[in-house]
Design a protein that fits this description.
The protein is of the alpha+beta class. Helix content is 56%, strand content 16%.
Length: 248
């Protein structure tokens, strides 16, 4: 009889441990699943990048987390102003003219990183130029100090091109300004920039038309003509325009 009681007690303990063990297993699996999701979100769901506001020549960085692959944002966006010394110099010298009393409303992407993978965007063509250094420091900071008259010509043009998102031609424009012979002759630089820009606009318009992006080509041509209304080359392009629409 004692054996029978012992066996019964043993079975009772075993049955009582069964549900408890399952609960422990479920809780453990849940914790591990949550930890795994958190690790994936931390590694793959981290989104960061930087932006540039052409109206104010301001830069900022941002970061947030999202659900990987679904791109569903799950945390608020954190932003921090990172405007550099060149931009501050341009504003202090009034070589660019940001709207007074207004915060930037348009930001162009400089770089975007999702997880460990980063991809530069088109505005990086300008922001990277502003950060170029040589043995004496920031190249453009010193160039501006050495060429204040030419700086007053150059940077408003750079700002205008940035606002039109024509970053692709800005590096060549900056190179033109730095290598143009002469000391600080603003007229010489202005004439060279005008000649060069008319050619750039004409080339871009022709390329867009060849790519059947005629609506965009016409918009760019109108902006160019507004800047250079007396240009025969741009007028000829307007006369050659055909009434077609962009191909989707």
């Amino acid at each position: 009889m004692s054996t029978s009681v012992s066996s019964s007690n043993s079975n009772g303990k075993s049955s009582r441990r069964g549900p408890s063990s399952r609960r422990v297993l479920i809780i453990t699996c849940s914790i591990l699943s949550i930890a795994l999701v958190a690790i994936v979100v931390t590694i793959k769901g981290s989104v960061s990048g930087s932006e540039f506001a052409p109206s104010h020549f301001e830069t900022r960085v941002f970061s947030f987390y999202e659900i990987p692959f679904l791109h569903i944002q799950i945390t608020p966006i954190k932003r921090k102003n990172t405007t550099g010394p060149i931009s501050r110099q341009l504003r202090a010298k009034s070589w660019i003219n940001p709207p007074r009393g207004q915060a930037p409303t348009t930001w162009h992407l400089v770089e975007l990183s999702r997880g460990p993978t980063g991809t530069p965007a088109v505005a990086e063509l300008l922001t990277s130029e502003l950060e170029i250094r040589d043995s004496t420091g920031l190249v453009w900071e010193q160039w501006n100090l050495d060429h204040p008259n030419r700086a007053a010509v150059l940077w408003p043009v750079v700002q205008r091109l940035s606002e039109r998102e024509l970053y692709v031609i800005i590096p060549e424009l900056l190179l033109l300004a730095r290598t143009l012979p002469g000391s600080d002759d603003a007229n010489a630089l202005s004439a060279e920039i005008d000649r060069w820009l008319v050619g750039q606009y004409a080339g871009l318009v022709k390329d867009l038309r060849d790519a059947k992006r005629t609506v965009l080509a016409d918009e760019m041509l109108e902006e160019a003509i507004a800047d250079y209304p007396n240009s025969p080359e741009l007028a000829a392009l307007r006369d050659d325009a055909t009434p077609t629409t962009d191909v989707e």
